[in-house]
Amino acid sequence: PRPLQPQRSGTEVGQLVRAQISERTLRTDRWWLSPLLTVAGLGLISVYAAIRTFMNDYYWVSEYHYLTPMYSPCLSAECVPAASHFGQPLPELPGFLTPPIFIIPFLLGFRITCYYYRKAYYRAAWMSPPACAVAEPHKTYTGETKAPLIAQNLHRYFFYAASLLLLVNIYDAITAFVGEKGFGIGLGNIILLVNVGLLAAYTASCHSCRHIMGGKLKHFSKHPVRYWMWQKISKLNAKHMQLAWASLIFVCLTDLYIALVASGVIGDLRIVN
Ligand code: FES
């Protein structure tokens, strides 16, 4: 039998062209629900993050030494001195240059270039395509081989930056067990620990992390430690989407809890004073 030949009209990807079907999709299920929920969730979180970024307040609970991950590290001279665990190398800055402005580009870069989030927002925001077997509205497709999407290849470097910030968050979570009155445990400590646990699981499950650990090896048998790590990371990697959402939502919840305690709206639930 003759092999199938690609059609000669339509949107091209290299030398290949897409099947030409007059219907936008033949799917009859609710394929639009997932992109809709994705765009709503990411939109809500973006609005919350923007409000908190420019609020520039309620990020530190001095009594219990809780520091929200959104403001860590707090490096400018306008930070509450005790919240600056790594000093204040930056001078006082204009009002719009709040501490998160220096952190968010790295965290946002890490999430935006993440393989899972790419799938999520390519579908939900760019509709490229919105779902499997649903035609996209765009006429051309250049993939990630040209600007601006070629920048997605920076993911590995954002992974390194996010890993450093994670270490900072872990340090904050551990030091928060010693407040103004000495050692203590409150609900805030548990929340900070769960937060770094989820962030660590999300970061470790990253595709770049998996490749760094087990990629480019010709013989796993000659690298037993890397092989062992690669196996563990591969298991986590299968849950990358769930970890992406859980860690993102929990960072916001952690920040919200600390903001509410710092502003005096609620008190911290103390387990050990
Ligand atoms: Fe998602 Fe690296 S692939 S964080």
Measured as a percent range, the helix fraction is 40-55%
Strand order of the largest sheet: 1-2
- Written as H for each helix and E for each strand, in order along the chain, the element string is EEHEEHHHEEEHHHHE
Oligomeric assembly: single chain
**End-to-end separation:** 79 Å
Radius of gyration: 23 Å
**Content-based structural category:** mainly alpha
Tell how many strands the DSSP assignment holds: 8
Count of helical regions: 8
What is the approximate shape? globular
Low confidence ranges: 1-10
Mean pLDDT: 92
Instruction: Describe the largest sheet.
Output: 2 strands, antiparallel
Strand content: 5-15%
Hetero groups in this structure are:
FE2/S2 (inorganic) cluster
Transmembrane segments: 31-51, 96-117, 157-177, 183-204, 243-266
Keywords: Membrane, Transmembrane, Transmembrane helix
What can you tell me about this protein's structure?
- The chain has 273 residues and is mostly helical.
- It is 48% helix and 6% strand.
- It is built from 8 helices and 8 strands; from the N terminus they run E-E-H-E-E-H-H-H-E-E-E-H-H-H-H-E.
- The chain has helices spanning 33-55, 99-112, 115-124, 155-175, 187-204, 207-214, 224-237, 240-262, and strands spanning 12-13, 16-17, 60-61, 66-67, 178-179, 182-183, 185-186, 270-272.
- The strands form 4 sheets. Strands 1-2 form a two-stranded antiparallel sheet.
- Helix 2 packs across helix 4 and helix 5 runs antiparallel to helix 8 (240-262).
- Residues 1-10 have low confidence and may be disordered.
- FE2/S2 (inorganic) cluster (FES) is lined by residues 114-116, 155, 159, 206-208, 240.
- Keywords: Membrane, Transmembrane, Transmembrane helix.
- The chain crosses the membrane at residues 31-51, 96-117, 157-177, 183-204, 243-266.
